[in-house]
Specification:
239 residues, alpha+beta, Glutaredoxin, Glutathione S-transferase Yfyf (Class Pi), Chain A, domain 2, 9 helices, globular
């Protein structure tokens, strides 16, 4: 569904992020869920730094995005928001109680079991790449990721989705795996690469990604200019 300023649902997103974060900020997960259920939404765009100011902290105590507002309800944490959308619209979760619980189980597995080591990798290779401790700990981080990916690959097997039809669990798991899809970490697991591609091929994902990318309209904030130059120089050294 198109972004609609008059929609009853409003989310928050950034108006600028570094290039490596485009297509990865977690409002994409919420946009994708809204597209899957056919719910129009409005967007409040935040300038970098304003997410830590009191107005946004009233919505999100940790100063992050996304948030979700609908009437008197305000939610934060992308996983909680995705599950709320699924529950509210009767989509992305099976009707059968046991199947529904298994879909929710996979949503928690994506965020609590698979994502933590993947984010450790992002910290070591991006956010703290210049720190003396990052390079030495990278092999152990990659070993933990490989263990989780191997377990996930074995469970997925030749199935299209993790448990029956596409669900909120798959939406969140694909979102998590996308973080490392261009790092080579998925290369040993062709079924996971195909799984991610299958998720990205869904029309709802395509619309959500296009809308997120279109929202990055602000120039690089002054406080990030030198940092961005250093990051691009480092990328050049690695190529």
């Amino acid at each position: 569904m198109p972004i609609d300023a008059a929609a009853p649902v409003r989310i928050t997103a950034f108006d600028w992020v570094p290039d490596f974060a485009k297509g990865q900020v977690r409002d994409l997960r919420v946009r994708w869920a809204l597209e899957e259920v056919g719910q129009p939404y409005a967007v409040t765009y935040l300038a970098q730094g304003s997410q830590k100011a009191p107005p946004h902290r009233a919505r999100q105590p940790f100063g992050q995005v996304p948030t979700y507002e609908e009437g008197d309800l305000t939610l934060f944490e992308s996983g909680a928001i995705v599950l709320h959308i699924a529950e509210s619209h009767g989509k992305l979760l099976p009707a059968d109680r046991a199947e529904r619980s298994r879909a929710i189980e996979w949503a928690f597995a994506a965020l609590n079991t698979v994502e933590p080591p993947i984010m450790d990798h992002a910290i070591a290779t991006l956010f703290e790449a210049d720190k003396p401790w990052s390079k030495p700990r990278l092999p152990s981080v990659e070993k933990r990721i490989d263990e989780r990916l191997g377990e996930l690959s074995a469970r997925l097997g030749e199935s299209d989705w993790l448990d029956g039809d596409f669900s909120a669990g798959d939406l969140l798991m694909v979102s998590v795996l996308r973080i490392v899809k261009d790092t080579g970490l998925l290369d040993a697991y062709p079924n996971l690469k195909t799984y991610v591609a299958r998720g990205e091929a869904r029309p709802a994902f395509g619309r959500a990604l296009a809308d997120q990318m279109a929202g990055f309209t602000a120039p690089t904030p002054p406080q990030f200019v030198e940092w961005e130059k250093a990051m691009k120089a480092k990328e050049g050294e690695l190529q």
